[in-house]
Specification:
alpha+beta, 361 residues, four-stranded antiparallel sheet, 8 helices
């Protein structure tokens, strides 16, 4: 109790001569930290300021301090980087698997390119290549039939007027079917193969119709026009090395434009009537010719018999001719003298018509 209270800013001990200190003398080296732990006192709990300092140290990667064992980490610390690296690794593995393994169907082929340069064509099954973007595979269907119709009525294509050789306009619609026989040429030789096939088809159809008449387009010449269009298209595609084969070309409809449809129907009816008359005339001519040929053959056979026995054949022909003539005429038989009188056959005498009145008898 004799000890003086210590100053909060100093040690509070006596000086060298045994006197009490006033806070500026004595054995204390200077003012004491008011928040420091006094000598001989109990250890205090964690300080508020010290806890913040520990958190900051842990965030910077340091450890120690009360309230933990140094395992706490913020995102971005050592454990966070490991998670990010693991995620990136999984993504790369998935990317390599998805872009390196390719399943090709039985009706397909795969065109492989390395940095855009053609490398080869892979067949059906599972195939392995380098991952993208080093390698890329374009799958092409080589057995399926592709096609289009022109004009496209669903898309509002409207009329397709084509000029014939005889100066008539015809509203024409057609369809084209084709498939791929060389995937490499199909991918690299043409920029837009589907549009190229449509343009070539339109050119070939117009060229074929321009060399045909209206009757040929509407009638029996349609099959010939279809064959001509298919051959012309195939020749152009082969010159382009497109890897495409034309399967079929069909002229679906050929009719007159709507503006002249009534007049065209009248012309068509007249043409049908003309064709019918021509057919009947040909049939009658063939019948007459057949009869004449039969008569000529009969005459030739008689002539052959006449050359063998001229007298007998001449007499037989005379008798047959007289029989044919006299059988249709009235006959009067005069008997020579000293012969029994003519006995009239009942019903054989024909009554002469009465003479007109006033005519002299």
């Amino acid at each position: 109790m004799s000890d003086k209270p210590k100053s909060p800013w100093g040690g509070g001990g006596g000086d060298s001569d045994g006197g009490s200190g006033d806070g500026n003398g004595g054995n204390d080296a200077g003012p004491r930290n008011p928040w420091a732990q006094a000598p001989g006192s109990r250890p205090r709990g964690p300080r508020p300021g010290g806890g913040i300092e520990d958190l900051l140290k842990r965030a910077r990667g340091g450890g120690g301090g009360s309230g933990g064992n140094g395992n706490f980490r913020f995102p971005g610390s050592g454990n966070g980087r490991s998670l990010w690296l693991a995620g990136v690794g999984l993504f790369l593995l998935a990317w390599i698997g998805m872009t390196s393994i390719h399943g090709i169907g039985p009706q397909e082929r795969g065109v492989v390119t390395y940095f855009g340069r053609y490398s080869g064509t892979i067949g059906p099954g599972w195939n392995l290549t380098l991952p993208a973007p080093i390698a890329s595979v374009r799958v092409i269907n080589v057995t399926g039939i592709q096609g289009f119709s022109f004009p496209d009525t669903d898309g509002g294509g409207g009329q397709n007027l084509v000029l014939t050789r005889d100066g008539n306009l015809v509203d024409l619609s057609y369809s084209v079917q084709w498939n791929i026989i060389d995937p490499q040429k199909y991918v690299f030789e043409l920029d837009k193969p589907d549009e190229a096939v449509k343009a070539i088809a339109e050119t070939a159809v117009r060229a074929a119709i321009a060399n045909a008449t209206l009757d040929e387009v509407l009638g029996a010449g349609k099959l010939s026009i279809q064959t001509q269009v298919a051959d012309s298209m195939q020749k152009i595609l082969d010159d382009y090395q497109s890897g495409i084969r034309i399967v079929n070309v069909a002229l679906n409809n050929a009719a007159a434009p709507q503006q002249v449809s009534d007049a065209f129907k009248s012309v068509t009816a007249a043409q049908n009537e003309r064709q019918s008359n021509v057919t009947q005339a040909r049939g009658y001519a063939q019948q007459v010719v057949a009869i004449a040929q039969g008569q000529a053959a009969a005459f030739n056979s008689v002539y052959e018999q006449y050359k063998l026995a001229p007298e007998v054949t001449r007499r037989r022909m005379y008798y047959e001719t007289m029989e044919a003539i006299l059988s249709k005429n009235d006959k009067t038989i005069i008997e020579p003298r000293n012969i029994a009188p003519f006995l009239p056959v009942p019903g054989g005498v024909r009554k002469l018509p009465d003479a007109p009145q006033g005519e002299a008898r």
